[in-house]
């Protein structure tokens, strides 16, 4: 399966690209800037080779990556993700699109969840991508530790979505990444519950001098 990580050059995009490639997916790192994507992919390949992995990982501009892929992940800050999917709307038709997007803002010394009027970032994305299968996941994965291939972890990944088959596909993908356990968190409207966990994790980190917090249900 060809998976495009749009914004695969950024914080969470690094870990997603590396770990999906290790899990056996044909990864396409998407970017606005083809040269930036090329440089990043060379780094990823070098790193993966040094760890003994032989993987398929390619790069393209976001539009071409969206065209080439079977499934796209929106590893883009919320402020820019909505306009990007407007542009890619037709190309992403009939494809599964994963939203890890968390809309939040600073409130004094803390972060608060700042959803759009649609209820959550995932629902807003779905309202734009009417003919795609939007599934939300990966919100509570800490980027830095996820990108560190020497790091061992066991994290739960709640998944929200309205299409059963699309959700099953995303479930399988997450199951294929070492250290992640996918959990069905309900319809796409439940994404507001999951997205709002991220500012909580960041506030807990900041106030308690903890790093790379994620979640695990026991
Ligand atoms: N960071 C985390 O720990 C984490 C964890 C879970 C979920 N998330 C979510 O994942 C998403 C990405 O977070 P991030 O921290 O990885 O973001 P980031 O590193 O700040 O940005 C990711 C990529 O977005 C692209 N981008 C930036 N401005 C853009 C614009 N105006 N239009 C189109 N693309 C643009 C850039 O790629 P190019 O320059 O190559 O185009 C950049 O590398 C966010 O929605 C966030 O809520 C983040």
Structure write-up:
This protein has 218 residues and is α/β, with parallel strands linked by helices. It contains nine helices and ten strands. The chain has one domain: NAD(P)-binding Rossmann-like Domain (Rossmann fold). The model has no long low-confidence stretch (mean pLDDT 98). The site of NADP nicotinamide-adenine-dinucleotide phosphate has 25 residues, from helix 1 and helix 4. NADP nicotinamide-adenine-dinucleotide phosphate (NAP) binds next to helix 1 and helix 4.
Instruction: Quote the CATH topology.
Output: Rossmann fold
| Rounded radius of gyration (Å) | 16 Å
Beta strand %: 15-25%
What overall form do the CA principal axes indicate?
Answer: globular
SSE series: EHEHEHEHEEEHEHEHEHH
Distance between the termini: 32 Å
Lateral arrangement of strands in the main beta sheet:
3-2-1-4-5-8-9-10
How much helicity do the residues have? 40-55%
The count of domains is 1
Q: How is the main sheet built?
A: 8 strands, mixed
Low-confidence stretches: none
* CATH first level: Alpha Beta
On the 0 to 100 scale, the average pLDDT is: 98
Main structural class? alpha/beta
Question: Which tags fit this structure?
Answer:
alpha/beta; 9 helices; 218 residues; 10 strands; binds NADP nicotinamide-adenine-dinucleotide phosphate; 41% helix; eight-stranded mixed beta sheet; Rossmann fold; two-stranded antiparallel ribbon; single chain
């Amino acid at each position: 399966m060809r998976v495009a990580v749009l914004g695969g050059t950024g914080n969470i995009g690094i870990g997603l690209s590396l770990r999906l490639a290790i899990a056996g997916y044909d990864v396409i790192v998407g970017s606005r800037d083809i040269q930036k994507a090329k440089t990043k992919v060379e780094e990823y390949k070098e790193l993966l080779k040094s760890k003994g992995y032989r993987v398929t990982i390619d790069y393209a501009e976001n539009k071409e990556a969206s065209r080439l892929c079977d499934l796209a992940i929106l590893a883009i800050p919320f402020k820019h993700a909505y306009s990007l999917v407007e542009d890619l709307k037709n190309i992403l038709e009939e494809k599964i699109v994963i939203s890890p997007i968390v809309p939040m803002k600073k409130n004094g010394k803390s972060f608060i969840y700042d959803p759009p009027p649609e209820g959550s970032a995932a629902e807003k994305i779905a309202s734009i991508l009417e003919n795609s299968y939007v599934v939300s996941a990966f919100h509570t994965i800490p980027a830095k530790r996820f990108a560190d291939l020497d790091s061992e972890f066991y994290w739960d990944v709640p998944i929200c979505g309205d299409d059963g088959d699309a959700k099953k596909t995303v479930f399988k993908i997450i199951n294929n990444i070492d250290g992640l356990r996918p959990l069905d968190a309900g319809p796409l409207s439940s994404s507001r519950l999951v997205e709002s966990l991220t500012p909580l994790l960041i506030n807990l980190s900041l106030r308690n001098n903890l790093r790379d917090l994620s979640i695990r249900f026991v």
